[in-house]
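Lecture 7, part B: from sequences to assemblies.

Below are the input chains for today's worked example.
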Amino acid sequence: MSAATRDQTREIHMQVMWNRLISVVEEQAMTLLRTAFSTSVREAGDLSAGVFDPEGRMLAQAVTGTPGHVNTMAEAVLHFIDEIGRQNMFPGDTYVTNDPWKGTGHLHDITMVSPSFKGHVLVGFFACTAHVVDVGGRGFGADGKSVYEEGIQIPIMKFAERGVVNAFLVQMLRANVREANQVVGDFYSLAACNDVGHRRLIAMMEEVGLDTLDDLGAFIFARTRAATLERIAALPKGTWTNRLTTDGYDKPVTLQATVTTHEAEVNVDFTGTDGISRWGINTPIIYTKAYACYAMKCVVAPDIPNNWASLEPFTVSSPENILNAPRPAPVSLRHVFGHMVPDLVLGALAQALPGRILAEGSGALWNIHMSVRPAAGQQGQRAEILMFNSGGMGARPEQDGLNATAFPSGVMTMPIEATEHAGPVVIWRKELRPDSAGDGQYRGGLGQIIEIEPAKGHEFEFSAMFDRTLNAPRGRNGGKEGKKGTVALDDGTPLNPKGWQHVPAGRKLVLHLPGGGGYGDPALRDPAARANDISKGYISGDRK
Amino acid sequence: MTIRLGADIGGTFTDIALDCRGRMFSTKVLTNYAAPEQAILDGMDMVLDQAGIGYGDLEIVIHGTTLATNALIERRGAKTAFITTEGFRDVIEMRTESRFDQYDLNLTLPTPLVPREDRFTVAGRIGAQGQELAPLDEAALHTLADRIAAGGYGAVAIGFIHSYLNPAHERRARDIIAASVDLPISISSEVSPQMREFERFNTVCANAYVRPQMASYLDRLQVRLKEKGAGCPVFMIHSGGGLVSVDTAAEFPVRLVESGPAGGAIFAADVARKFGLDKVVSYDMGGTTAKICLIEDFAPKTARTFEVARTTRFAKGSGMPISIPVIEMIEIGAGGGSIAWVDAMGRIQTGPESAGSEPGPACYQRGGKRPAITDADLVLGKLDPDNFAGGAIKLSLANAEAAIDRDVGSRLSLNTEAAAFGIGEVVDENMANAARVHAVENGKDISDNMMVAFGGAAPLHAARLCEKLGIDRCLVPPGAGVGSAIGFLKAPFGYESLASRIIGLSSFDATAVNLLIADLKATAESFVRQGTDGAIHAEIVAFMRYRGQGWEIPVPLPDRAFTDADVALIREGFLTAYARFFGRAIDGLSGLEIEIVTISVKAADKRPAPEPATLTHGSRSVAAPQFRAVFDPSSARALKTGIVARESLAAGDRVSGPTVVVERETSTVVTAPFDVVMQSDGSLLMLKKEIV
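Predicted structure of the full complex, as structure tokens:
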């Protein structure tokens, strides 16, 4: 075989192995999806999975999963290598943490890392992250005054050594969380999913006769880096700033982002953002960075897979503030501000790339955590129920926004029939909210209306984690703003958009989720599209 | 019955297979979209003529069709009114509230089958325990009935929350509407009594949507057959792989979706039974897609829900869910016509875009300029340019080379052969990955299986696919080009009934479960009885999980009355199945409730077993009469490769790979690690050289 032929064959082998590596992490993610107990993982896909080289650089990440973990996990593995130490790593080990600053931003996310040994040689790592049902403390909500109130903290440590599970950790965990069986079940699911990845990787290496992933890694990084840099080089050069005001907890919070493009780098700086909150709505920078990178990748390089080389040119900087809150700030609801980061960053990019960026949308998911119990003096059932719901997405430059669709989060809603089996509540309404979309040449996506009543003889406390109730999603390019959200009881009593609150027996919680902003001058909207909005009831007939 | 005819209407071809007292006749004719029944009759004329019999001699006609699927994909169904629970008008529009592609901000979601203006709500509510929370608003239904009667609708669908537990409101609503509206009415508790409202509502809407069209087609077909003198009954193959009467099919046409591919899986299952192979993976590759199905103990894997009409690159989530019993297979955009291209990272990609039959791959010389898988196969020497499709299409090697050079080779500085090799490797790798993930999802190891390959392009790629999957034997049966239609002839009369009921094992009530199973069995058997007087056997499966999980796994249960003491057996069955799926059962979860979510009863008559045959690994070594250079993927270079005509081989002949077995329809490529042995029934067995 000539040298030229060898090169040609090598190119093809590398491509095939890259392809296989992506399939390996998909299998890893699929295993987690199928075995997880946590509703947010199994029904909503709140997870991620990836494979890393021995240096801790991410080689491939499963597409299955949510952007919140895009590169939080990538950085987490480096912390694990530092703290465990390579000399203490053995085949059959699995390491774990829920440290918000080393993992993915709050205690509910458990990250597990497993070394992958071929024989006695460390060839790489598998990592995965999932949101578990409970971590003790005050529960999933904004009311903790510091991370110490938010639940059990698991520093980076071994979940299993040489295949033997750390019984002390499991015992500690059981004593500290509300749904011990489900949480422990999820720990096992996470470990099992890394096992699947490891087995597949070793099988592939044996099949093709590889001893290390060095050459393959170099090939993947070189190709991805070149493609990413080509896209970045094509961006206009400059600096653009955007500000966005959100509801906050007890007072509005303004976020600010400045995007600067360089020849081989895009930087987002969050100087100008408001300071740390007393409430659990702060965001560790690692999570802020995940959503900033996600927003930039959607615009600049949507087709380039996530790995160390494709993420490296996107950088983030910030002084200490609500988007870069250090320990021990409370961070339980970090997703609310994390989910606002894309609209914030896209607003700056819209100045760099006019005509290419969608309008603002509902942004943060409207998650509801309900703690249901029998009403005083009644027999009944206790249950913890979590629901994910989405408002409208912003209008796109050439299309209407998507109705009731999650963005930037990648999660799905659950069937209400499944939610009603999870505990004693009745969901009386979950349908589109007419007249909520921002007008424009292209209309924003509609929000939705949800009505929930405790089942007969029950009442519930719920943790509100809502935003855009005081500050509407803005339109772009002349488009109008979407309608703000509202939170109330069915008798008209207004409720707060954040914090734990009570819904008594016989009352309904009524949520109106925000609609997306419009894009372009409403006068330019196609009359046929307008007529269609009326015949579908997206706009009620009596309103022009 | 000894004279049976199968007819499969596919997207491009209508295939007819006739089993005339054990002899098989078959033909392919172009599908006639305006009058689908005409193509069937044209094909029937041909095979009946070949067999020397008439329409009156037929004892049964078994039919499968993609017409229902096409109506959903092309949105050519009836204007449908959907009546649903107040507060839930938009369930089929809001879907899962997610985007199927995280990074494409311009993506378009599929529009609902029934637009918002045709969706109506009425008050009345069933709770999660099946209890009535609010009475049905009958007055509103009477008003609505008048509105529907005046609205120019062709069909009505009804879907209420929790109706799978308590269908009373849906039935009452149907009665009220039927009293003043003369339209077919479908209710979700009959069409798809499963939990999860989006899937169930979409399924009942799909059923209503295709019902008038399918009823009219089935009617015309029967009339035309009668005119031709065929007095025999017509049965339809359904997506679960069984036969149902035409009347049932007309009432539940959504069950016909995906019936063609089901035929292919039954075909492979029949091959498996004939040779006594208990673990088989069927691999069907045509012009546009490849389909892979696991077959265990001669029965294809089944599922309770699937997605049809995917709008974007076969992406999961870009279509619509249909919750009915279905033979489970994965389909990927990898066929002979799939286009090869290079992405931003310089990676070769294949499909899902397909050159189809027009303009076709570049080598067809019909105007196709972009390289397809078939072009790569030609460049690698797997196809003979002068003898493709029996010489019907003359292939141009020069065109194939030019297309590959331009779109792939020059982009990556690869020579033509290496580029073609790359294309082949990528498509084979994609199929291998899909097969592997599919096996994992079902708790299986793909390499434990034997492969059965059919469809025009499968024999060209099967051996390499086996190498990648660690499979050491692969059968290529005769008649593989019309596999689905032949499969129809092997299908049992069968029907699967299921119902969602959340039953915790700690409060297991044997009497209630026995009643539920008896009820499901009666329903399933009543459908089977329409086709047979013979013995019926039933398979009972519980779909179970730990409480709190979202995925249920199938746990087979014995077909007998349960007592409360059987909880231990059911729990044991679950733990065993769980460990098989996920590697290990979870320790220390003794306190966690295990629950049944859905129970299914599959009833079918016993089909006569095919004449058993034994696989031979060869009794005589035969040398290929001629040789040409064919690229071998595992050694990554062209090797001197034998060329053998399939019809020249006698049972027991073993030819050493690398070799290509050529026939009129396709070629079977035997790569260097394999030999090939002709079987007594005309099948080709590829097996690893070291197997003797």
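Note for the exam: The mean pLDDT of chain A is 92. Keep this in mind when comparing with the next example.
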